[in-house]
Amino acid sequence: MQRLNKKLILLAFGICTPLTLTTLQVNASSFGAEIFCTMRDGGNDHESSWDAAYTYIKKQKGGFFKVSPKNAAAQITETVIREKEKFSYCVEYLDNLHPNRKLIRDLEKEEKRKEKEAKDIENKRKKLEKELEETNNKISGEFDDETLDRYSY
């Protein structure tokens, strides 16, 4: 009976804990959005407003894993959109939270292309070195010491 009670307590605790953490995360992102929007509306630049909001969201999340900047930006955006009436003045600042993704994708593609190109050049160089070594081995195998003796007539 005691064993069953312990299992029920652990089950109840396991169900309630994620609900509490979710509520804390929603409150953190909501207040993070409030920090960001209030600072921007007050005339602060994007960087200082973003740093303050992101720091607050990270601090409130706690735990082993921290919130990524991309995730924090998404939380702020989600809060501003969800609570349009409260944050109507902040919609114009949201574009700074998400940099030009097409530009980022293009830069990543260009970097991958350059890496592939460098890898191909390295593979070609290794292949040519191997062929040269094989050719040198063939040539040196064809001539013996008598053939290379320059004084033998």
At a glance:
By secondary structure, the protein is an all-alpha fold. 76% of the residues lie in helices and 0% in strands.
Features:
single chain; mainly alpha
pLDDT < 50 runs, ≥5 residues: 19-25
Instruction: Estimate nothing, just give the exact number of structural domains.
Output: 2
Secondary-structure class? mainly alpha
Number of strands: 0
Secondary-structure element sequence?
HHHHH
Describe the structure in your own words.
- The structure is a single chain.
- This protein has helices at residues 2-41, 46-61, 69-82, 101-142, 145-148.
- It is mostly helical and 153 residues long.
- The chain folds into two domains: 2-98, no CATH class; 104-148.
- The model is unreliable at 19-25 (pLDDT under 50).
